[in-house]
Amino acid sequence: MAGPRPVVLSGPSGAGKSTLLKRLLKDFEGVFGFSVSHTTRSPRPGEVNGKDYHFVTREEMQRGIDGGDFIEHAVFSGNMYGTSKWAVQAVQAQNQICILDIDMQGVKNIKKTDLNPIYISIHPPSVPILEKRLRDRNTESVESLQKRLQAAISDIEISKEPGLFDEIIVNDDLEEAYSKLQEVLQQEISAVQSSKDS
Ligand code: ADP
Ligand code: 5GP
After folding, report:
1. What is the pLDDT of residue 2?
2. Domain ranges, residue 155
3. What single DSSP character describes residue 147?
4. Is 86 within the bounds of a domain?
5. Could you tell me which of 100, 63, 66 has the C-alpha nearest to residue 83?
6. Closest residue (by CA) to atom 26 of ligand 1?
7. Does residue 135 carry a catalytic annotation?
8. Residue 196's pLDDT is what?
9. What phi-psi label fits residue 165: left (phi over 0), alpha (psi between -120 and 50 degrees) or beta?
């Protein structure tokens, strides 16, 4: 479907993807729309079904996958996650920039599609700082935290592969990372804003 280029935000769990994308959605109302993924993990306190994720059972998710509803899907830290065709189409139908928050497997699978997004990886300043942020977020069991850190170490290495990401943003100071993100997306933001004005 024609329209603004989608944006993939990837990077280790705890790097700050949700924090950054929620700010974009709030500051640029009507410009960005979030691709609401499906997941089999349990909601965290404050997460809203249909807004943060579509929280589903493994059976429901598998039925959707078998029925061809998903552009991509992956298992991360023992849970299933996936982007439905409908999640992306719903945003594109509004002529908004669709933001996908997906893991490294998702990035590799999206590369095989014709979605043609801008690929951005959000990195923590270091693995110990990532671990502290994840602990302080207080959302993960000891086991889940360990799995996320393992995935983080390998994903940080993989993301340096030339050509995999258009931009790697280190989220050390939040304001600086957010400014950088806006700068990277400025051309797309302006295009959507001017198309809405006309
Ligand atoms: P992700 O969506 O990548 O898993 P979050 O956005 O949930 O990560 O961020 C992980 C935690 O780190 C959250 O508690 C968030 O408030 C915090 N955080 C995000 N960015 C920063 C930053 N620049 N400095 C300090 N803490 C941060
Ligand atoms: P969390 O459980 O912290 O919300 O997400 C865990 C990981 O799953 C993160 O790296 C996040 O980017 C990724 N993720 C969320 N939704 C999807 C999705 O639809 N597809 C894929 N491949 N990964 C996803």
Report:
1. 63
2. 7-197
3. H
4. yes
5. 100
6. 133
7. no
8. 83
9. beta
Q: What is the pLDDT at residue 86?
A: 98
Within-domain flag for 174: yes
Does residue 1 fall inside a structural domain? no
- CATH code of the domain containing 164: 3.40.50.300
Q: Which of 5, 23, 44, 58 is catalytic?
A: 44
Number of H helices, E strands in the chain: 7, 9
| Among the listed residues 150, 118, 164, the one whose alpha carbon sits nearest the alpha carbon of residue 14 | 150
Q: What is 45-93 written as a DSSP string?
A: TT--BTTTBEE--HHHHHHHHHTT-EEEEEEETTEEEEEEHHHHHHHHT
Ligand 1 interacting residues, C-beta cut-off 6 A: 13-19, 133, 136-137, 171, 174
- pLDDT by 10-residue block (mean), the chain, 198 residues: 88 98 97 98 97 98 98 97 98 97 98 97 98 96 96 96 97 98 97 88
Closest ligand to 144 CA?
2
Q: Is 44 a catalytic residue?
A: yes
Total tally of structural domains belonging to the chain: 1
Q: For residue 42, give the DSSP letter.
A: P
Residue 15 located in a structural domain: yes
Put simply, whether the predicted model's pTM sits higher than 0.85 gets the answer yes
